[in-house]
Each structure stands twice: as structure tokens, then as C-alpha cells.
Amino acid sequence: xxxSRETSxxxxxxxxxxxxxxxYVLLAIMGAALFMLPQFAGRQASAFNVYDALQLFSAYGxxxxxxxxxxxxxxxxxxxxxxxxxxxxxxxxxxxxxxxxGLGTAxxxxxxxxxxxxxxxxxxxxxxMPVTLGFYIALLGANIAIGNSQSVxxxxxxxxxxxxxxxxxxxxxxxxxxxxxxxxxxxxxxFTRLGREIRAVGGDRRASRMVGVEVxxxxxxxxxxxxxxxxxxxxLLPTASPQRFRIPGSFRCSLRSRRPxxxx
Amino acid sequence: VTGxxxxxxxxxxxxxxxxxxxxxxxxxxxxxxxxxxxxxxVFGAFATPGFLSISNLSAILTSTAxxxxxxxxxxxxxxxxxxxxxxxxxxxAITAILFMALLHHGVVATxxxxxxxxxxxxxxxxxxxxxxxxxxxIVTIGAGAIQEVIIGWLSPxxxxxxxxxxxxxxxRTIFGLPFSVYVFLGLALxxxxxxxxxxFGLELYLLGEDQPAARAxxxxxxxxxxxxxxxxxxxxxxxxxxxxxxxxxxxxQVAGTYTFDAIAAILVGGSAVTGGWGSVGRTVIGALIIAxxxxxxxxVGASTGMQILVKGLxxxxxxxxxxxxxxxxxxx
Lengths: 264, 332
Hints:
Distance between the termini of chain B: 28 Å
Largest interface: A-B, 43 and 50 residues
Helix content of chain A: over 70%
Shape of chain A: globular
Radius of gyration of chain B: 21 Å
Number of strands of chain B: 2
Low-confidence stretches of chain B: 1-20
Largest sheet of chain B: 2 strands, antiparallel
Oligomer: heterodimer
Strand content of chain B: under 5%
């Protein structure tokens, strides 16, 4: 009996180790592929390849961060895809007259969406998937309605160029912003009480409530952060390179929209 | 991703009083919402020129058919407690492309091959979910991405039927309604009968209601989950064939919004997202409600965006209100 228990414990430990190391192993494989694959085509990987990968990371990575946080608390947020599409539209429409007004309104809208989703999930105990799916569909509709089924462009090319300008060869301001957000979330999750509470809520919600964790507040807060991360990712995407200055009028569940969900 | 909190909620105050007040609120809210929706549809039916015409009612059924077929199949996935698939639209496009690409082998053989392909694609995902307990959302997101990449390599552009291919019957109108409507209603009827009157159906309900209990009772959980996904895949394959016959020109864009439209139809029908409660008939009603509201908005000149926005709001409200009502009914 004790031998079987020992074997089972060893299996669990190995499984946990594999699961923990999986993202790092994948990152290492992808990093190696980034440098090795071009050689098969007789080319050399350059700093630009890293720069380009980080550019994509800045947009999709932030959405993945948002979804990942909701997954840590045991929920799932489809609404991030809607926010990712709608908030840049708002930012561009209002940002034409005042850049900060556009950014502020878009982020405030994201916070409101996250708050509503989180409040429904936390206070009414509704499953997050259908709720956030409903929000996603509604936000997609709002995006198409506001954009009149057309892509919109941001005329402030200087802002886009400044965000895109290479810093230290491989970075740009937008990838630096994304990395800073990741670093901030890492510090909160690793070194603060809030981070421990977030993991506790995901691990055992009932026990967390019993020991005094404000579960509802944590849930609502995570949904707000998730939506704001996605909004920021969406805003950083269209203001990046001039050829990608267009915001999609519609955002279907295609491979493109699945990227952040897969990454999370 | 669990998202289930068994901690009891509820209003403050004395438990009994609070529960009675809450019961009234939740149930009345559901009735009020249904009444308002019904009143809006009836009022809109009379106030909107052309809504009650035979051609418009036929148009509603026609627009329901494709999404409806996918939705009735996917209802089995939801009832079995495996949430839903995120690759419904992608596999619809894949099967439509496959149908067109294989047509030179003959129509019947191609239809059979396409349906088998749809069934197999979903059965593999169901096996992953059922056998190793993989999260259905993650599995189906990944499966969709893999399918898109593969089909992108094999068929980057539009595919049209080969010359002489006789597939017009797929888009033929019979007694004023397209062939797809009859397929939709026929499939819905068969699946409803299966779910109500067969051992498989009852076991699927039990699996969705309480998976540990189903395991303890010795039910073949992996097989049931795989079968639920396989049936959904078959329905997706049927839609792929019909879409190909209707469009005559297919590519990956065919996927459109089928995924979320089908899920929305199931949710609006009132089936529980966690499984064990709901029916194929409810999904048919959900699909018809969405098609009717969309049609009405179209007739009053609402933009595409507004139609989708209203659809999203309806889904959210139905999910919340039905959850409140169901939770109250379960409380002692």
C-alpha cells in the first residue's frame, strides 16, 4: 500500500515538474527554431527577427496575460477578444482629436467591461464562459457598429513611428511597454499578498473564502486587469507599423484571434 | 478552468425571507424577460412590414438551418458536460473545402467521405477530452488552429466544384423551403429522440450532471464523450456539405461566425453550460429566436454590428437569468 502511495506521489511530482517546466522548454525550442530555421533557407537570423517577434508579442502577449490571469483564478475570459477589437477602435476614433482622451476612454471602457464580467461571475456565481462569450459577441457587434463595418486608420503617424522605433536593436517602445506590464504582474504574483490570494482563489475558492480572502474582489479585479491588458494589447497593435495601421472592422474567431488564447 | 464555486451565495437578511424574496426575483425576472422578448417579437411581427410574409418566414428558417444543424449536434457536447467546441466554424469550412476537393470521386462517395472526416476530426478531440481529461476549450482551440494551418498549406485559395459535378440538389427548394431546412429539422428530430429515448442519451445526461457519479456507476465516460463529439462532428460535416452546395465556391472564410452563433443558439435555448440539463429541442428554439430577432433587426434597417450586439446582449441576459432561476430551484 505504502509503495503504491509512494509511486503515486512520485508520479504526481514528476507530472508537476513537467507541467512547470513546459513553458520554458517550449520557449527554448522556439528560440532555437528562430535562429536555426532561417539557416535551412541559406539565411542568417538577425536582430530584426527578434525585434519582429517581440512586436507581435507586445499585442498578443498582453491578451494572453489577461486570459492567463483569469485562468489562474479558475475562470476563462472570452471577452478579451471583444475588448481587443473594440478598444483600439475607440482609441483611434477619439484619439484623432486628443490622443490621451482616446487612450483614457478606451482603457476606462475596458475596465468597465471587466468589472461587469467580474461582478456577474463573482456575485451571481455564473459560469464565466457563457457570460464572457455573450460579452464577446456584444463587443464584436459594437466594434462593427462603431467602425461601420470598415477598418479605420490612425492618422497620427508620428505616434506610431515613435512606438515602433528600434531601441537597443531588438526592442521598441511598444514591446518595452508590454514587457513592463508582464514584469509588474510577475512582481505582484510572486511577491505580494494579492498574488498569493489570486493563486489561492484558483486553487480552492471555498477554502480561500473561509480564511478571509475577499474572493469576489479578487475575481472582479482579475477580470478588470484582464480586460485592460487586452485593451492595451489591441491599442499597441494598430499604432505599430504603418502597414498595419488598420483596425479590423470585424474580429472573427480565426487563427489570429485564437493566438492569445493558445498562448495563455 | 473550473469556474464553479459551490459556496452558497444569496442575499443578506434572514435565510428564509431572503430566499423567498430571491426566488421571486429570479423567477419573475426570467418570466419578465421571456414575456418582453415574446412581446417584442409579436409587436415587431405586426409592426415590421414584410415580417409575416411567407417569403420572410422562409428566409428565417433558411438562415437558421446552417447554424441550427451545427448547434443541435453541439448540444450533445454541452449536455455531456464538455462545455463546447471552439472549432465548429473552422471544421465547417474544412469539410466544405474537402467536399469540393474530392468531388471528382463522385457525389455520394464524397458526401460519405466528408461526413466521415467531420466525424473523425471531432471524435479525436472527444477522445482527448474523455480519455485524458483534457480541457475541451483548450483542445478545440488547438484543434482549430491545427486545421487552419493544414488547410492553409493544402488549399490556400478558393475551391470551386469540378465541371459537370451535379450538386445543385443540395441547394434545391422543396415546397418553398431549401433542402437544408429539411435536413436541419430531420437531424434535430432524430437527435432529440436519441437523447430522450435511448440509453445513450440518458447516460449522456448523467455524465453531464455528475461526472464522478457517472464514473462510479461504471459508465464508459471516455466512449460517451467521444461519441458526443463524433455526433457533433457529423453535424458539422453535414453543414460543410450543404454550405459547399449552396456557396459553390469555398475557402476558409466560410467559417464565418458559425462557432459563436451555434453556441449562442444553445445558450439562448437554455441548456446548462455545465451539462446535464437542456435538450436538442431547446436548441432549435434558441436558434429560431436568434434568427427571428436578427431578421427583425435586418428589416428595420439595423446595421450588421447592431444585430450582433443585440445577439450578444440576449445571450448574456439569458445565461444570467436562467442561472439565477436554476440555482434557486436547486436550493432546498
